[in-house]
Design brief:
Blueprint lengths: L8 E2 L1 H9 L3 E4 L3 H6 L6 E2 L18 E4 L4 H12 L4 E4 L2 H7 L16
Length: 115
């Protein structure tokens, strides 16, 4: 397993540029967290289901992984790197995404919030 210091990270404003260029954003939070607020174009794959739902990740794209603050996504990023996927952990998670003013929607598509 990779040590935390070797896990590549990315800041939210860098991440949004990569996403607009085609990178896949994967949110590994639990369903209640996702329903309350997430990035509109994220793919939801709860951390506990990552190995079973690995087929939802596009191996041809860069992948940015997020959770609430960065701990769970750090574990997910390590796993994806071990699977040969070009993954980066979103530094500060969705909390930092929200702090820089990037859009968050709830399950209905309305303005969301991070729990």
């Amino acid at each position: 397993m990779l040590m935390n210091s070797t896990i590549p990270t990315i800041e939210p404003l860098e991440a949004i540029k990569l996403i607009s260029d085609g990178a896949q954003l994967v949110d590994v939070r639990e369903i209640h967290e996702w329903n309350a607020g997430h990035a509109e174009y994220a793919t939801h794959i709860p951390l506990g289901s990552l190995s079973e739902l690995l087929h939802l990740i596009d191996r041809e794209k860069s992948v940015i992984v997020c959770c609430r603050a960065g701990s769970r996504s750090s574990r997910a990023t390590t796993y994806l790197l071990e699977q040969g996927i070009n993954a980066k952990n979103l530094s500060g998670g969705m909390n930092s995404w929200a702090e820089v003013g990037l859009e968050i929607v709830d399950a209905s598509g309305a303005n969301g919030f991070i729990v």
